Amino acid sequence: MEEVVEALMNGDRETQIRAATDLGRLSGRQRHKMAERGVVPPLLSMLHSQDFEAVEAALFALLRLASGSERNKVHIAKAGAIPKMLGLLQCQSEALMDLAMAALLILSSCTANKLVIAASGAIQILVEMLNGANTGGDKNGISSMSMQAKLDAISTLQNLSTCHQIIPLVVSSGAVFSLIQLLGGGGGGDKSSELVQKAISLLEMMASSSEVAVEEVAGMGGAIQALVETVEEGSPQCQEHAVGILLLICQSCREKYRGLILREGIMPGLLQMSVHGTWRAKEMAQDLLLLLREYPNYGSRKKQLKNEQLEQIMKEIDAEGEEVAGTALRMVEEMLAKLSA
């Protein structure tokens, strides 16, 4: 280990690259001690190099140092790594961009780093990159992001959003637009893809914590349609997040959004989810069904009884399980027809 430290601090280009590579191969216990030995500053200096190999070796070493060590994550951030990472996110090399994004993701997983990263302007850069990837290019000339970089960018935003102080910054950055774009086609059209799952998970996190985010989603052209399509075509996890967002939208102003949601043809997918969805999805689907089918006179005893009947049918469906799924679905459809008569 002493040789690695000495080589990084005082070696020439080739020696430093070799030392950075060797550092990445050390055991976890050895790596955890290296940051305190002064290896971070020379690694950060290597990031300023115009030499691809030197930058790549330094990024990989920093990634390895940060992995599994909260202390090293804090140490690397305090040493000034974040602005350098953000600079590399806007370079022309996809390989270096991927490494820098992965490093930022790891640093963002540390609670002590979240506000520091948010204050560095990272949120706006990540959102602009996602926008550029969705539209085929951006002002920095970045024509594309790898799929892994997109996934890591969204995961980084999600890590930051676990700090409630940061959510307003994420919302105001235009992240809602970026995420809706991914749902509406920027994710490749596959409503069950990993990219769509990460995007809609972050979107629900934002909507559940911010009324502004709910208003932005509800008011964005094509957003409700994209959410309804995800209910119909998405994976069970994607469906769960989609119905959660639609429920928040409808709860925020039922009179305004009930008709919009119904016009997108939500009922078939919602009925299927109320029978076949995850436990949480079933609960939310049932709540949304009641909101979509209720009359405005919430105090009506007659309407209350009908709602109680629907809730009872839902409970019976859950108790019977999947063996009677087809019959259960017909029961729900019949009851809904009566409620809307």
Describe the secondary-structure layout.
Elements: H1 2-10, H2 13-24, H3 28-34, H4 40-46, H5 52-66, H6 70-78, H7 81-89, H8 94-108, H9 114-119, H10 122-135, H11 147-161, H12 167-172, H13 175-186, H14 194-209, H15 211-219, H16 223-233, H17 236-252, H18 254-263, H19 266-276, H20 279-293, H21 301-320, H22 325-340
Task: Name some characteristics of this structure.
mainly alpha
- The total of helices stands at 22
Largest sheet: none
Low-pLDDT windows of residues: 138-143, 298-302
Overall SS class: mainly alpha
User: How would you name the oligomeric state of the polypeptide chains in this document?
Assistant: single chain
- The first-to-last residue Cα distance is 78 Å
Mean of residue pLDDT values = 85
Strand residue content: under 5%
Note the run of SSEs as H and E: HHHHHHHHHHHHHHHHHHHHHH
Specify Rg, calculated over alpha carbons.
25 Å
DSSP strand count: 0
What features would you describe in this structure?
- The protein is mostly helical.
- Helices cover 77% and strands 0% of the residues.
- The protein is built from 22 helices and no strands.
- It has helices at residues 2-10, 13-24, 28-34, 40-46, 52-66, 70-78, 81-89, 94-108, 114-119, 122-135, 147-161, 167-172, 175-186, 194-209, 211-219, 223-233, 236-252, 254-263, 266-276, 279-293, 301-320, 325-340.
- The N and C termini lie far apart (78 Å).
